Amino acid sequence: MIFRNPVLDDLQTINSIENLCFPVDEAASLDAFHERLKFFSKHFWLLEIEGEIVGYINGMVSNQKTIEDEMFQKADLHDENGIWQSVFGLAVKQEYRKKGYAAKLLEYMIAQAKEQHRRGVILTCKEHLLMYYKKFGFIDLGISSSMHGGAVWHDMVLEL
């Protein structure tokens, strides 16, 4: 099992996983992933097992304590000197789920944020995932102003 940053050749695989894991209205496009690699590839990690990409986690760094919809559309809002590491997407291929790989990806991102002296990690999630993220120490800040994909989201924060 290895963690690594993606390269352009990984885009199709990343996009395929995204489309299998998220509803159409919420899934990032291939162009969006291309922009993310351009602006914050150091904050985008793949998990490989025996050479196969099984999942990923990514998000920009910002000085904002919550995620706004604009951030999903404008990767250039990334601020390498920001204090909050965001989670835009955490996805694992179906056949690798329920084996702890999503947790390993999240723990890896949290460790990277600590190493980079960030104040914390922020994310939005749907209500049914609140307990999952609370296991990692995230606190629910309530309903988010984000309307990404037409869903109801909760803002969550893990202060480091």
Name the descriptors.
160 residues, 5 helices, alpha+beta, Aminopeptidase, 27% strand
Note down, in words, how this protein is organized:
- There is one protein chain.
- By secondary structure, the protein is α+β, with helices and mostly antiparallel strands.
- The chain has a single domain (2-122), classed as Gcn5-related N-acetyltransferase (GNAT) (Aminopeptidase, 3-Layer(aba) Sandwich), CATH 3.40.630.30.
- It contains five helices and nine strands; from the N terminus they run E-H-H-E-E-E-H-E-E-H-E-H-E-E.
- It has helices at 11-21, 30-40, 69-73, 101-115, 130-134; strands at residues 2-4, 44-49, 52-58, 61-62, 84-87, 89-92, 120-125, 139-143, 154-159.
- The strands form two sheets. The protein has a five-stranded mixed β-sheet with strand order 4-5-7-9-8. Strands 1-2-3-6 form a four-stranded antiparallel β-sheet, sandwiched between helices.
- A hairpin with a 2-residue loop joins strand 2 and strand 3 (52-58).
- The longest helix is centred in the last third of the chain and has 15 residues, at 101-115.
- The two termini are 26 Å apart.
- The mean pLDDT is 97.
